[in-house]
Q: What sequence folds into this?
């Protein structure tokens, strides 16, 4: 799993980590269990706001899951992903011989947040 | 722009369209304006819940923007993206000679929605 998260610890505003996961179709359930372990640890860290894991409707899609995780700041995100408990949880996922997952993470800021009736 | 959205009109539960956009760095502002036009039209359609456009913190990233759009059902999403006003707005973006955008859309359901204090 390529876990090169490029973020900027100087970003004091909220950030969103978006991670696209590819894996063989029959590993989806096992991945989901491992992801939940990672998410539990992340959710305990300061600055955690919300995490959503999206499962592709198309079973033949290359990207099977996309993770959208909000943190209060880039610094909080960096600290959370560097926390030993989180690193250990990710390591268990990586070392699982029955999981063949590649991840494509990147960090974003929200440019537009549109609700019905909002003006743009 | 490759706009092959594969969704399932039979999905009666909420769906999330996630779309990754690639473009030359100097086209980001022009793209943002064009995207807002598309989003305005989408937000007027029945079943629209929320759209967020994320801008990558890393200016050298290949994926510059990721769009996360929630609709009340797969059917509502299909109808919205087939609406003539939306099709025309997307067409204007595609036909803009000053924009060189590729899109990678897919449709998802939320598998996990985690807030602080939630149990998994």
A:
């Amino acid at each position: 799993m390529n876990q090169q998260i490029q973020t900027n610890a100087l970003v004091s505003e909220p950030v969103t980590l978006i991670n696209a996961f590819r894996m063989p179709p029959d590993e989806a359930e096992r991945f989901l269990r491992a992801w939940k372990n990672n998410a539990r640890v992340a959710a305990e860290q300061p600055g955690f706001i919300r995490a959503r894991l999206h499962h592709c409707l198309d079973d033949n899609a290359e990207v099977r899951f996309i993770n959208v995780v909000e943190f209060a700041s880039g610094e909080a995100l960096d600290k959370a992903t560097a926390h030993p408990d989180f690193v250990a949880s990710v390591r268990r996922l990586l070392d699982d011989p029955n999981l063949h997952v590649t991840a494509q993470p990147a960090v974003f800021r929200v440019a537009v947040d549109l609700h019905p009736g909002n003006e743009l």
